[in-house]
Amino acid sequence: MTNPFFITGIIPEPYFCDREKETQQLVRIIENKAHILLTSARRMGKTQLIYHVYEQPAIKTAFHTFYVDIFPTTSLHEMVLFLSKEIYSNLVPKGKKALKFFLNTIKSLTGSLGYDPVTGTPSFDVKLGDINNPELTLQEIFNYLEKADKSCIFAIDEFQQITNYPEKNVEALLRTYIQRMNNCLFIFAGSNRHILENMFNSAARPFYNSTEQFHLERIPKEIYTSFAIQQIINAGRAITTDAANLAYDLFEGHTYYVHHILHNAFANSNPQKTMDEEDIRNAMEELLDTRERSFSNIMNKLNYKQKETLVAIAKEGKASGVTSVAFVKKHALKSASSVQYAISTLLEDQLLTYEDNGRSKIYSVADRFLGYWIRRNY
User: Looking at the domain assignment, is residue 10 inside a domain?
Assistant: First the structure.
């Protein structure tokens, strides 16, 4: 019996929930030859949406499509390694002709790319130390994309990461190359909406006014719960409406977390009975138990002020006025200034996230499971 709630890999079409309007809008933007800035809260489904767009007939047949997540990178060298590796692995299934063209274009890495002399299979032996001149290799990558046999789309996820690179000219460098290209469109995606919108909306920044901007919201409750109920029926099981609603409400429709809890409830509940609210709650407890060590390690790495601030915000669920006398007093915090300093570090470490309602910032724990674990244990 196939679990209809995929939590790893690319979600197959029959198990992909809604996003019809968003998919149509993104396809239309691409067909009109515009770059895209795609933002969303973490784990709202933007990566799955990108791959879903790539599978649309109008895109799949007309474009070479690439996707890379640069969140783990800390320098231009690493970014160039990730980009070249993605292109290489994407071209391997297309045969020697496509790969040869790539090798002839990326001359700075030719010695580490090619074919195994014994087996004849493609090999990617590039190490970080092989990238001696990242700007040159980056230029060659863009030259390849510009000369490819059909148009390209390159999605770069967590694009805000480039602002942390030690090289100070990365934004300007990328913008210089990209603005000259006619054969490749870019999807700049990320979860830090504040940094990304500043990058693309500030007249002083290189990427100012260079994209169509698209923010991914949560899937409406009635759409998602109907989808979940039908998926479980298709799998030969049943779930109550109240249970589906509870799974959605626990995480306010935050796609990844709702999907994950339904996956666990489906996997661990009695297949002979209708899944109910108790199954959802049990799935939550079991999941938090499995992450006990990981979450404990996160808390142990924080200093006392950071920990007490994170706990206070977790207990609120959504916290505004965090430097007010009322908030500080309610949670027995040391001072408004210590809270403010702790929050800046927690945001930098992506343990906190926030929404801006126009008047103030509303903070919450970035990992919803961690937030529930803190409330349970503190």
Answer: no
Can you give the residue range of the structural domain that contains 243?
Answer: 221-290
Q: For 158-203, list the strands marked E by DSSP.
A: 184-190
| Cα 334 from Cα 116, distance rounded (Å) | 62
Number of domains making up the chain: 3
Indicate whether 311 belongs to any domain.
yes
Give, for all 378 residues of the chain, the pLDDT tens digit. Answer: 789 999 999 999 899 999 999 999 999 999 999 999 999 988 899 999 999 999 999 999 999 999 999 999 999 999 999 999 999 888 877 777 777 788 788 888 866 665 666 666 667 777 887 788 999 999 999 999 999 999 999 999 999 999 999 998 999 999 999 999 999 999 999 988 878 989 999 999 999 999 999 999 999 999 999 999 999 999 999 999 999 999 999 999 999 999 999 999 999 999 999 999 999 999 999 999 999 999 999 999 999 999 999 999 999 999 999 999 999 999 999 999 999 999 999 998 889 988 877 778 899 999 999 999 999 999
pTM of the model: 0.88
Gap between the Cα atoms of 262 and 284, Å rounded:
9
| 231 and 211 within one domain | no
Dihedral (C-alpha) 37, 144, 84, 92: value to the nearest 10 degrees?
A: 110
On the CB side of 28, how many CA atoms lie within 13 Å of its CA?
A: 8
Residue 349 shares a structural domain with residue 311: yes
Six token digits for residue 231: 């998926």
* CA end-to-end distance (rounded Å), the chain: 38
DSSP string covering 215-233: EE-PPPHHHHHHHHHHHHH
Tokens 């002083």, located at residue: 204
If residue 152 lies in a helix (H) or strand (E), which one and from where to where?
strand 152-157
H or E stretch at 347 = helix 336-348
150 lies in a domain? yes
The answer on 234 and 196 residing in a single domain is no
Return the closest-CA partner of residue 149 out of 185, 97, 200: 97
Same domain, 26 and 99: yes
With beta carbons less than 8 A apart as the criterion, state whether 190 and 160 touch. Answer: yes
Nearest CA among 240, 282, 242 for reference residue 261: 282
- Rounded Cα distance between 8 and 138, Å, is 30
